[in-house]
Amino acid sequence: MSTTASSFKQAEHKLLSVPGPVEVTDEVLFANAHPSMSHVSPAFAPVFGDCLRYLRKVLYTEKGQPFIIAGSGTLGWDLVAANLLEAGQKALVLNTGYFGDAFADCLETYGAKVDQLGAPVGGRPSLEEVEAALKKDKYAVLTFTHVDTSTGVLSDAKGIAETVRRVSPDTLIVLDGVCAVASEEIRMDDWEIDVVVSASQKGISVPPGVSITALSQKALKVLDSRKTPIPAYFANYKRWLPIMESYEKGTPAYFATPSVNLIYALEASLKSIVDGPVSLEDRFKMHKEAAKKFREEFMRQAGKLGFKTVATSPEGAANGMTAVYVPEGVAPPALVGALAERGIVIAGGLHKDIKTKYIRFGHMGVSVVERPSDADKILAALKDALQAVKSA
Amino acid sequence: MSTTASSFKQAEHKLLSVPGPVEVTDEVLFANAHPSMSHVSPAFAPVFGDCLRYLRKVLYTEKGQPFIIAGSGTLGWDLVAANLLEAGQKALVLNTGYFGDAFADCLETYGAKVDQLGAPVGGRPSLEEVEAALKKDKYAVLTFTHVDTSTGVLSDAKGIAETVRRVSPDTLIVLDGVCAVASEEIRMDDWEIDVVVSASQKGISVPPGVSITALSQKALKVLDSRKTPIPAYFANYKRWLPIMESYEKGTPAYFATPSVNLIYALEASLKSIVDGPVSLEDRFKMHKEAAKKFREEFMRQAGKLGFKTVATSPEGAANGMTAVYVPEGVAPPALVGALAERGIVIAGGLHKDIKTKYIRFGHMGVSVVERPSDADKILAALKDALQAVKSA
Questions:
Q1: In chain B, which residues have their Cβ closer than 8 Å to the Cβ of A231?
Q2: Which residues of B touch A12 (CB under 8 A)?
Q3: Does the keyword Transferase apply (chains A, B) (predicted)?
Q4: What are the phi and psi torsion angles at A391 (to 5°)?
Q5: B182-219 tens-digit pLDDT
Q6: B207–A22 CB contact, under 8 Å
Q7: Domains of chain B
């Protein structure tokens, strides 16, 4: 007898509490175990179409064009760099950590002239600094990392977008939302965001392997009015646009084979995000509350030991993850190991300047909305792990 | 209670008999439903490492370097074009169908000067023609599609490689094996193939979403001695090489998040291909025998009606798929539809010159090795479907 959705319960495992990949539901995993389907079958096309429609809801956009392409989140940078800039054009990268450095690197690979506007680790450039930079030079695009996974710093997406629109209305606004989509509010139309770059394995709560991006009508016009050819084949939006339009109409089309099973999983997760019992507004509110509570409890337990969040201001701290400096005398790998022994998987450092000095927790998606008790488990294990590490 | 490997049986579904994606085993789907894991967890790293080791066996290479990257098979063309050629260098594309045209297009996108050597639809360039072309000009790379999914034409991989090595030993030999790896014999070391491009969803029998490529030591040297920077970020082998080396040693490393669940699925399938009860040699033999039998039975049933294989010679016909012209009076969509009504999913045409005149069947992987009775089901349904279409 075959396995049914209701009989499928995922295998026992350690609680995954890194800032992505995140815990996913049984429904999503069951969808990922869908029997093989042709990518051009009439049964699969509407599933793909649904994903596109759901993504529009998640991003609060009516005319934004989502793209679902097999790849890592990183592929989204190539899509931006190869399609929305031409060699020699200028880009302003607001840098709040590792992912700012790397995005800048990607833009330069395709010939963009990049200026970076940074801040000390844990901080973010102020809107005044953004305004000043935009007044000093003309940029084809401005990029910012909504949540930088290496620092847990949250950018003021709405404020940045308002500043760009006021000071430099032609500049395309690119929001790197790999670690933000579906855990942080992003109002693509209202805020006039031109590009959202994301992936499946964070707030969207699906296994990794899908690059998810969305373009505003303005970004599509920039794409359409390029003077030079797009210097990439797979990462070419012009090749993917008719495919997305066709699938959305329910008609399969082919450029390169999509990750069929992950798209079934994506549909299952997006359906529950958009049409589930918790509204999108409540989802974002729950992430805010969960982050606040997690950090308060964490500090109540560990603050006196010298732990300190990397993000230097509460309004500049992500709602789906937290990065925390460990005090002198506690080795991050020992703490990560002690937590793993207690069934909790957290992440070590990533930012080059502080790599060996901090740890990172994820608190997004399923662990916030469906199973808020996950945070209690993490904190209980932390208490125990801290004892073990201190007495070792 | 959680679902276990032995209790998981994939959902009932139509038999997928297109030339990829193909049917996959319950074990592979169960692995694809693995609970969320960190891509840098010590438990995941050896799984990734095993995939690399197994791929070497499948390709009969000791020192070839496999790369497993989230993406479609198509991404492999970008990897070749962006990394192993520099703008202005020449490439010779042996064209046996749609995938030759498209690979050429990709190479040109990155600035290569491409010459194509084709043949009438269903045929393949002769080794004499290849030799003559190589003597006329100097090519940095030669590419060929081992099995062109649009025509079912099989290239003589060994013969082509011998010719290139003899006539133009510096030319890199690129085998596009998306529809060939694990269903056709490929002896990377013995035949001195420099690059194999593949994907998860065909002979490898895993859901789509993973680009699989492998480079010879010679190709790695070409990569290493480039004079110009690699014009891509995600599709940059130099960024991925240390990641692959690290995972193979069992140590996680990060450049972009791999498709963790698909890699569990890949491990499950490659393990059964490499270490299962059927040897690799027997696997290839079984594909040859199954293809021969399928085409004989098909022609016995339908040959007198005017069906005809697209591949014009038996030695130039793939062992994992068959493309067949339908006779006047039979509409391919009607036949595809009639088969779907009978639980069998086959594919329509793809090659631009004959698109509306033919149909395609897949017979590779699970349907050949684990469940040879799939072919009987297809042929029985075909008989019935043909009656229905003729009498309609």
A1: 109-110, 231
A2: 2, 35
A3: yes
A4: -85, -5
A5: 999 999 999 999 999 999 999 999 999 999 999 999 99
A6: no
A7: 26-275 (3.40.640.10), 280-391 (3.90.1150.10)
